[in-house]
Amino acid sequence: MVKIMLYSNIVKGTFIDRPNRFIAWVEIDGERTLVHVKNTGRCREILIPGAEVYLQFAPSPKRKTDYSLTSVRKGASLINIDSQVPNQVVYDAILSGEIKAFENLSVLKREVTYHSSRFDMYFESPTRKGFIEVKGVTLEENGSALFPDAPTKRGTRHILEMIEAVEDGYEGFIFFLIQMKGIQSFSPNIKTDPEFAKALMLAHSKSVSVLCYDSVVSNNEIYLNAKVPILLDQTRG
Questions:
Q1: Has residue 235 got a pLDDT over 70?
Q2: Residue 4 — very low, low, confident or very high, per pLDDT cuts 50/70/90?
Q3: Which of 76, 102, 180, 216 is 20 to 30 A distant from 3 in Cα terms?
Q4: Burial letters for 164-192: b for 16+ Cβ neighbours within 10 Å, e otherwise?
Q5: Is residue 98 part of a domain?
Q6: Are residues 41 and 146 in the same domain?
Q7: Distance CA 46, CA 63 (A)
Q8: How far is CA 25 from CA 17, 75, 138, 148, 163, in A?
Q9: Percentage helix, strand, coil, to 5, in the chain?
Q10: Inside any domain, residue 232
Q11: What is the rounded distance in angstroms from the CA atom of residue 77 to the CA atom of residue 142?
């Protein structure tokens, strides 16, 4: 059974602008309100003035804002932009047996250090052991998903470190979770970050497995949906 990640206290708003990576102005019930953005990526193609957005109301004395922006509507699609979600969605799906590549595991741990690296997950079965690095994807162009939406030296480093783990005898997986439904294919965003794309293609040639799934997204939930075809050598732009 699929585990569903739910949000509580969801409200609807209209996006106004984004002064920096961490905050945005959103109109909620006719009032201009400062909110936290749960994604430090650019998201420029979706966070545009007038966009329909959904937020979680979670007031706390420790927070500067009472709301966190979790999803944005783009056309007919609702895109989850919470960067903390992909790891949890994939972890829950593995535990539920929804991903064939990770069936019959005896161990599944999160945030595991290996040499100088910290991978999102470590797994074992009686015959296997390996690491999983999860990347959330929010960029869509003409039915195809792309990653990243901004240059990411950290993301490139994760891939190169995964190659090292595979060379040391572990299995390695780079798992892209598309935070929306209805995607036809996935490709590395060569135009935006050629170094990341180059590293991903190198990893594939070095026996690192690359997986991609899309998600079912509503204003208060997100869960794993289906495998998406991967086109690693697609040059864009």
A1: no
A2: confident
A3: 76
A4: ebbeeebbbbbbbbbbbbebeebbbbbeb
A5: yes
A6: no
A7: 25
A8: 5, 21, 20, 24, 41
A9: 15, 45, 40
A10: no
A11: 12
Q: Are 130 and 122 in contact (CB under 8 A)?
A: yes
Residue 93 lies in a domain: yes
Beta carbons within 8 Å of 211's beta carbon, 6+ residues apart: 99, 101, 173, 174, 175, 176, 227, 230
Q: Which domain holds residue 116?
A: 85-227
What does the alpha-carbon distance between residue 25 and residue 16 come to, in Å, rounded to a whole number? 5
Structural domain ending residue among the three candidates 48, 63, 80: 80
Q: Which two tokens stand for residue 5?
A: 């990640």
> What CATH number has the domain bearing residue 34?
2.40.50.580
pLDDT at 157 over 70: yes
Which of 139, 127, 209 has the alpha carbon at shortest distance from 178?
Answer: 139
25 and 135, same domain (yes or no): no
Report yes or no on whether pTM surpasses 0.85: yes
Pair 81, 43: CB distance under 8 Å: yes
φ, ψ of residue 183 in degrees (nearest 5): -90, 135
